[in-house]
Amino acid sequence: MTIQLRSADDLAKMREAGRLAAEVLELIGEHVVPGVSTEQLDRICHDHIVNVQKAIPACLGYRGFPKSICTSVNQVVCHGIPSEKKILKNGDIINIDVTVIKDGWYGDTSKMYVVGEAAPHATRLIEITQECLYMAIDMVAPGVRLGDIGHLIQKHAEANYYSVVRDYCGHGIGMEFHEEPQVLHYGKPHTGLELAEGMTFTIEPMINAGKQSTKLKPDGWTVETRDGRLSAQWEHTLAVTSNGCEVLTARHEEPFKRG
Ligand code: MF3
Ligand code: CO
Ligand code: CO
Q1: In ligand 1, which atom is closest to the CA atom of 168?
Q2: Which site among 10, 90, 126, 158 is 20 to 30 Å from 212 CA-CA?
């Protein structure tokens, strides 16, 4: 297994890719309202990435994926395909996942949005899932092992009677979309890869209100919960620093220092 360590120059490029991906999540928020189609959201993101950022939407054409972002509504766990037929309605929850390529480097990030006003059980799932990501980010540092991080996420989700999706995980990222290592969102302490300064990867927990099992829809992309209950996800791209980590896809609304 070969895990790349990034130089200061590499990190400057990844910081820019991450900044652009975060910017897309920031600008799309005001468009996530009842009556909009996920196709319209895709169009706005695509045009901004291509025309304004002069960057590449990494999802478009990736292994045949037909759109520029993933839009995963309610029981959809991940990889929802934007469609003109999918009209958002009051109370929906949606994950928008944006990956851009700038200058050959990738930035990958997603967040949850509430359409209008959501039920308390839905906003609570969203909040706990974000806490899972934030607690994991807090833990990232040289010497920490991936099993420690997975375990922390699993503990927080299960303490709240939720379940952790096992079928999809975070990943190394750099000049390729998905690299080693796999970053599982469950695990055992003191196991797995030991982190070192210069590693870059995503953490992107998918947490289900019900059971963890998923099913793939016939379109070959859309992943749903088997029991039809809600799922939430948040994702950041991180770089391990000498004493912690840098969140390369931090948004202005978040408590992270931006580079
Ligand atoms: N952005 C997703 C991830 O976090 C991958 C989406 S691949 C696509 O790894 F083809 F569905 F866009
Ligand atoms: Co990712
Ligand atoms: Co992503």
Answers
A1: 9
A2: 90
